[in-house]
Amino acid sequence: MRTDLTSCVFCRIVTGASPATVIREWPDALAIVPLGGVAEGHLLVIPKAHVADAGTDPAVAAATMARAAELMAEHPNANIITSRGSIATQTVFHLHLHVVPRTHGDGLPLPWTPQRGAARSVQSNTR
Fold first, then answer.
1. CATH number, domain 5-125, options 3.10.450.50, 3.40.50.960, 3.30.428.10, 1.10.101.10
2. What's the whole-model pTM score?
3. Average pLDDT over residues 33-41
């Protein structure tokens, strides 16, 4: 699948055609503040090369993960999250890793954490 790079929001940010708050820049990646972040300090790490997801180009994915790990090292508790495919919750098809600092009791569920209704359903099935 070929992507028109002018239609990719992250490619536009990389080229400077769209605004973003850049927190850190490396030769191969950017760390930006996402719109509607879920926690204080939530960042997105995006490669400068257009790669659809972590499974498309493992070398780019590994380099981007290394950049995200640098940011994660600055927090005592954090998640690094990425997705591949719409069923796995990917909505922007340019590789991006969420670095989400966590605090005790922050109430942020992970995508695979059962929500209240689902948790009740799981509990009733295990009895």
1. 3.30.428.10
2. 0.83
3. 92
